[in-house]
Model the fold of this input.
Amino acid sequence: MQIIPVIDLKGGQVVHAVRGERKAYQAIDRHSGLTRSTTLAGVVADFLSLFPFQTFYIADLDAITGVGSHGDAIDKLCARFPAIEFWIDNGQDLTAEALRYDNQTVVIGTESQTGNPTPVNDDGILSLDFKNGAAVGHPDWFGRSDYWPKRVIAMTLQKVGTQTGPDFALLTHLRKTSPQTHFIAAGGIRGYDDLCQLSGLGIQSALVATALHSGALDSAALQTLQAKKYPGKPGYF
Done:
């Protein structure tokens, strides 16, 4: 199980994402026991003080909604940490130019795609976006597993930031639909027990934010999980 911290950017600062209701997002320092910073570099540094994560997911919400971009700040961060992989969700579609740094990986979110679906290159990551029980995006993204790359995020937006538990039913369905796909759980993860249950379902990775900021997953828990499975391989459990 790979734990991937999530950072949401809006209006020049890191924000606390809840249920996909982006207009109501507030600065992360108002909701975090981990960081007092609201800058991208500061929050990443505080995450790394907790644990040596090897991958981060960054959602540029201004770019996704078409009101701006945090591209320069993201590029500076990627240049500063060349050994870390950064998954970048900035609303781009399949026809957009490649990202600028070798340690950046593009996330194709179904909510942002305006054209007809086509297969996603295995170098990228597809995010299957769901909200309130409905798929967000063209139906073929969800019904055509032959369009999926090797890595696919199951993003349950209404669970983000709620710590109400992952959508186990959805993840079980996706695993049955495409057993060979590396699925990444996103939304609602409360802590250790949820991660164990996800692992039991064959889910190999999870996007996590609130459980890290709240301390539900602290340094000791992360170290314990690592020692049980893959000692010496930071970021994997």
Observations:
- The first strand starts at residue 2 and ends at 10.
- Residues 230-237 have pLDDT under 50 and may be disordered.
- Helices lie at 40-50, 61-65, 71-80, 139-143, 168-177, 192-200, 210-214, 219-229.
- The radius of gyration is 16 Å.
